[in-house]
UniProtKB/TrEMBL annotation:
Residues 297-349, 389-412, 476-511, 618-666 form the Soluble ligand binding domain. One of its GO terms (molecular function) is porin activity. Residues 132-204 form the Polysaccharide export protein N-terminal domain. Belongs to the BexD/CtrA/VexA family. This is Polysaccharide export protein. Residues 46-64 have a biased composition (Low complexity). Pfam families: Poly_export, SLBB, SLBB_2. It comes from candidate division WOR-1 bacterium RIFOXYC2_FULL_46_14.
Length: 723
């Protein structure tokens, strides 16, 4: 029973605290035995667990199990599928993406390499039926032709070019055609046949084409020697070899013939402009060489094609922006930021103005290797509006006009139902301030008595809320990263998305996944169940005392009995003082996705919603060599964080490792999850329990006393970490 109460306290302590605010503190004193107790409790049916309603709780439990397959916070999706996607990124893509995802940008990939994901057969000609033979095609060994003559004499002859470049013509004999172009072949054959045939016409068609031996080497996926159709070009050879790797250049590919470069291919011309003029026909023995990639620059933000681009020569900022497709209508041109590595020692940022962006005009802003160019969007908020919401027929934004008053937006016919609604005007205390002033409007004085004092002048961004009066004395409180945090009157049946919308939504720094909803009614249930278990513990301890007094533990001295009794009373007295927050696990999302979803829970009077800023750490506790907080890095798995603290100890229960999510949910091996292979969110905690002996802790009073005080010490530390 004692273990159950301590485990209950541990789990509720975790579930009811603000996990995203975990800090890097000294956790070396946290007991693995206490963590084991918490784990044992979590795998059983929990009493006093927060709930919304009977049916909703059942669904909520399933949602917690499914959280890891569904939730996506920026690019930090912890699913195995997302980890596999991350692993498919090149080292360059990962390095750049780590820098930009923490600022809210999506990961970027290297431009152009997807071209070669298609099958090579889609680009390789298989016969002259697929691609017509051009007049400049060079005849060589392996080519076959069908020669048709008609007139005084008629016939069809099939001839092949042998290894010496020769063909055999009827009556004429052996003639050399190697090196002739296809356009030269017909008049040459006709002149030879006319020596023996008079008054004939000659027609020549290809039978089969020779094959070419082409070498594709350098930074390609499958370097080697390839036998290609003689109509094949350099592009076809690249496709046959799988294309350049992401360590290979897309812009400086060489065609080598007899030891010298005869052509250079820049695939960007083909990809960006459709220019295939560089795609030269190959000759047997040619080598297609792909060198290591040159300098690169990444472009992210408000451009048409964010990506990592290879740059050639002295690239200007305008050159790179046009590689990215140029800016769009939402681009803020007064500030483009360049993040740059300087002298292999430090990073700097430079803000540039590009208001006169033109493809033909250089800006004089050189771009260097590994620059990250951040193109910002204009401020998206509409400034000249007032917002009408709630129990009205036509909610939404209305154009603000100078001198606009409340009755310019509202009339008696604006309301959905008959009766007297409650009206409030919510206004920012100062321009740009998150604090608000609320102005109650008396319906009777505004519409019946027509008191002009209540027909107040409106200001831009005012919000007019209309709701039913049944719950006018009830409220909810929003804290943290909301645009207008504060206390809001609660409408009948109002859901969390509605109140968040009234608060202006989330700020850019909001960590939505770590949102915390606390509820007074749940707090009372948790406390009641907890105290009930404390009472049962007291009865159980009294029974144990009687057993000790009856000599059931023969070696126990009287002084040890008294010490045990005194310490257990101290523990009970301590546990009685603890209170709970009444946390309800919620999975919030962007307002557009939250509205109408199963996560859009109905609020109660006294509810408090806290949305923290994005934390920067993950906490690792329990049987590891260095229990501590570790800096969060997107894409890392549990095993990576365990490795960073020295790994698990020899006494660790590696099969019992579990994750306490920042949203309050728990993921364990017993849910069928491969926990160590899972990814994490900022603010998550990893708990590694200890393997305990199967000998009952009640069997020896001394062992029990040691264990229980170790557990209570652990509670104190954990309570300090997550307070």
């Amino acid at each position: 029973m004692l273990k159950k109460v301590i485990a209950l306290f541990l789990s509720l302590c975790f579930l009811s605290t603000v996990a995203p605010f975990a800090q890097a503190v000294d956790t070396t004193t946290i007991s693995p035995a206490a963590i084991q107790a918490a784990q044992q409790y979590l795998q059983n049916n929990q009493q006093g667990k927060s709930s919304i309603s009977g049916n909703q709780q059942q669904q909520s439990n399933q949602d917690q199990v499914d959280t890891d397959e569904k939730i996506n916070f920026l690019t930090m999706d912890p699913t195995l599928e997302a980890k596999a996607k991350w692993d498919r990124l090149s080292k360059l893509e990962q390095d750049i993406s780590k820098n930009i995802t923490i600022e809210g940008y999506e990961p970027v990939t290297q431009f152009g390499y997807d071209l070669f994901k298609k099958s090579a057969s889609s680009f390789l000609p298989t016969s002259q039926e697929d691609v017509p033979v051009n007049s400049d095609y060079i005849i060589g060994p392996g080519d076959t032709f069908n020669i048709t003559i008609w007139g005084v004499s008629e016939g069809i002859f099939k001839v092949s070019v042998n290894q010496n470049g020769e063909i055999v013509l009827p009556k004429v004999g052996v003639v050399n055609v190697a090196g002739l172009s296809y356009g030269q072949l017909k008049p040459f054959v006709e002149s030879q046949l006319n020596k023996f045939y008079e008054g004939i016409n000659v027609g020549i068609t290809f039978g089969t084409l020779k094959t070419l031996r082409i070498y594709v080497v350098g930074e390609v996926k499958q370097p080697g020697s390839y036998s290609l159709n003689s109509l094949s070009t350099a592009y076809a050879a690249l496709f046959a070899a799988g294309g350049p790797t992401k360590q290979g250049s897309m812009r400086d590919i060489k065609i080598l013939r007899n030891g010298r470069a005869v052509a250079t291919i820049d695939l960007y011309k083909f990809l960006l402009k459709g220019d295939s003029s560089q795609d030269r026909q190959l000759q047997s023995g040619d080598t297609v060489f792909v060198p290591v990639i040159g300098d690169v620059a990444a472009v992210v933000g408000a451009v048409k094609r964010p990506a990592i681009y290879e740059i050639k020569g002295q690239a200007d900022l305008v050159d790179v922006l046009w590689l990215a497709g140029g800016v769009n209508a939402a681009t803020y041109l007064n500030r483009v930021q360049i993040e740059r590595m300087v002298a292999h020692q430090k990073k700097i940022v430079m803000d540039e103005q590009v208001a006169a962006l033109s493809e033909k005009v250089q800006m004089g802003i050189p771009i260097r290797d590994l620059d990250i160019i951040k193109v910002f969007s204009v401020y998206a908020s509409i400034e000249n509006k007032v917002l009408l919401r709630g129990e009205v027929k036509y909610p939404g934004s209305y154009e603000y006009k100078e001198g606009m008053r409340l009755l310019d937006v509202l009339s008696k016919n604006s309301f959905k139902t008959a009766g007297i609604p409650q009206i409030e005007v919510v206004r920012a205390a100062a321009p740009g301030s998150s604090k608000t002033n609320i102005y109650p409007i008396d319906y009777q004085k505004l519409f019946v008595e027509k008191d002009s004092a209540y027909n107040i002048y409106l200001e831009p961004l005012d919000e007019i809320s209309v709701f039913l009066p049944e719950r006018k004395d009830e409220s909810v409180t929003l804290k943290g990263e909301f645009k207008r945090p504060g206390k809001y009157a609660l409408m009948l049946g109002e859901r969390i998305s509605s109140v968040i919308e009234r608060a202006g939504g989330f700020t850019d720094y909001a960590y939505i996944y770590g949102a915390i909803l606390t509820r007074p009614s749940i707090k009372s249930i948790q406390q009641e169940n907890y105290m009930d278990l404390i009472s049962k513990l007291e009865i159980d301890l009294l029974r144990k005392e009687r057993e000790l007094g009856n000599g059931m533990v023969a070696q126990q001295s009287i002084s040890m009995k008294e010490e045990t009794y005194s310490k257990t009373k101290q523990i009970i007295d301590y546990l009685k003082k603890k209170t709970f927050k009444g946390r309800v696990i919620v999975n919030l999302d962007d307002l557009s996705k939250l509205k109408g979803s199963k996560n859009d829970v109905e609020l109660e009077d006294g509810d408090e919603v806290l949305v923290p800023k994005v934390p920067k750490s993950v906490v690792v506790l329990g049987e590891v060599y260095n229990p501590t907080a570790v800096s969060y890095i997107a894409g890392l798995r549990v095993r990576d964080y365990l490795s960073s603290v020295g790994g698990t100890t020899s006494t660790a229960d590696n099969g019992g490792i579990y994750i306490l999510r920042a949203n309050g949910s728990v993921v364990s091996q017993r849910q069928g999850k491969d926990v160590v292979a899972m990814g994490l969110y900022p603010g998550d905690s990893i708990l590694v329990p200890e393997k305990l002996d199967s000998v009952t802790l009640w069997g020896f009073t001394k062992d029990f006393t040691q264990w229980i005080f170790e557990a209570i010490a652990s509670i104190l530390v954990i309570d300090k970490v997550f307070k």
